[in-house]
Amino acid sequence: MNYWLDLFTGTTWNEFRTSGSTISGFRKRMRNVASKVQPGDILLCYLTGVMRWVGALEVVRATDDQSKIWADESFPVRFEVKPLVQLDPELGVPMAELEGKVAFYSDPKDRGKFKGFVRMSPNRFANPDDGKLILSLIRQAQTTPVARPVDPKKLARKPLYTAEQRKGKTTIATKVSVPESDETEERTSQTTASTEPEATATTRHTEIQYNLLALGVDMGFDLWVARNDRSKKWQGKTLGELPRMVTELPTQFNEATNRTIELIDVLWLKGNSIVAAFEVECTTAVYSGLLRMSDLLALQPNLEINLFLVAPDERQEKVEQEILRPTFALREKPLAKVCGFISFSKLMEKLDGIRKLGLATSLKPDFLQKTAEYFSDDGES
User: Could you tell me if residue 163 is inside a domain?
Assistant: First the structure.
């Protein structure tokens, strides 16, 4: 018997249960992996977004059943299942409880990425003991329920959709997201009487910019900081007056390109080449930074450059939804494949280590690619 990961969103979990909880499905591209799932195997159900383990299903058999279960996608590779445990999201087992106990979450550094294990399903547990542990915790949560609130926005997260893109005579299927409007969030921020949260966010934005600029200097790069941020200060140092700060962008770009990138938060430069570009999103909408990156690639499609969006840890879900919008995902070079997400905490942790060990002068700029997360569809049902 094997244990397998079965991914759901809050929406698809609810649809699965509403339909009778007897059929679980996966995307067509997972057919080869799914062919290894056998009767008697256990599917352990994980809710993306809210990061809760909510169920265990025993596989009865593969099935050709194609009845309508999920509203937004068919998940045609299907299995008849027998529910062993089903939990409401509020009663689910938090992923945090597994830290240091399973192979894919062996220490705090695995938080968020979980060594890529929860990026697709079905995905077999390499260590059966991990599956046994999760099953036991799910059963315990059923017999001794503990209610923990979940973020309703994350619970209502929509699955990814399939869109087709023509390349010559070939049609390629691409996964895209269609995010909900942020109007409520924007209205709240616009009508808030206190300016303290905004001031704190602005200070945090400047702090992150300064640290990226300082690292660039230590690595031997010239610097560019957004024109509208040049007068900002961090710890008494004006950003626009830091060492190796240039006052004009590389001359090989046309005016349209220069107008696009002159407001990018931080650039690392080497001669006339842009080595890396960073957008730091704190108070502004995530979409604006991604759009600026996308515009840069549209204007310079052959430009080889490291792109990064740096944002608070709690904005990771929003970044993923935005970067998988059709306007970004259907590009010839999808933005999600070339623009990485780095959380504030991960960036500062990495910078602290570099400073303590004095590694900056020996680093190459692509080291950040190993730190960043690049989003793609995850095979969830």
Answer: no
